[in-house]
Specification:
Elements (H helix, E strand, L loop, with lengths): L1 H13 L10 E10 L2 E7 L7 E8 L2 E2 L8 H12 L3 E9 L5 E7 L2 E2 H7 L4 E2 L10 H10 L13 H7 L10
Helix pairs in contact: 3-4
């Protein structure tokens, strides 16, 4: 009858690392993919595997794609705020690509609000339920012609993705 206790003990050790807690977890930001996606190194509480790495998509915003105008500047703006910083990550959901969708705070600033306010991301209407506070921030950035709003008619990433052919997948032979 050792096995049931062993299973229970394993579950108690692994549950903390199953996902980022909804109430929030502090993690080190070790990568910035683009203006709305980061890689975080989070403590697990397991001595054998003390850290796990997760991809995190910022809630309610959509930043320009890498090859889109302002794509690299958007990535740099998020990196300047979050890279190599401790971040509070509050998980909201998981997207279709398996990324954690979360509210992220770096250096005491809400990263999504910061990106929208700097004109480096759009409020993502499709996923902005409960984030109405972002629209006035976006309106102020637009009125001040900050970031991507300095262009006469910037193309939102969701429209830009629709008009682009899919990226070829790298295959090893």
């Amino acid at each position: 009858m050792k096995y049931p206790y062993f299973v229970v003990a394993q579950l108690l050790v692994l549950l903390p690392c199953a996902s980022v807690a909804a109430s929030g977890q502090t993690c080190l930001i070790v990568g910035v993919t683009d203006g709305d996606t980061i890689t975080a190194r989070c403590p697990t509480g397991d001595m054998a595997y003390p850290y796990s790495q997760i991809k995190v998509r910022l809630s309610a915003i959509d930043a320009p794609e890498k090859k889109q105008p302002f794509g690299e500047r958007s990535r740099q703006a998020l990196a300047a705020l979050c890279f190599q910083q401790q971040a509070a990550i509050a998980e909201k959901s998981t997207d279709r690509y398996g990324r954690t969708v979360a509210d992220v705070s770096c250096q005491g600033k809400d990263a999504g609000q910061h990106m929208v306010g700097a004109g480096m991301a759009w409020v993502y209407n499709q996923y902005a339920k409960g984030y109405g506070h972002l629209y006035p921030i976006q309106d102020r950035a637009k009125a001040a012609r900050l970031g991507l709003w300095s262009e006469s008619s910037p193309t939102p990433p969701w429209e830009w993705r629709r008009t682009r052919p899919p990226e070829p997948q790298n295959r090893k032979r």
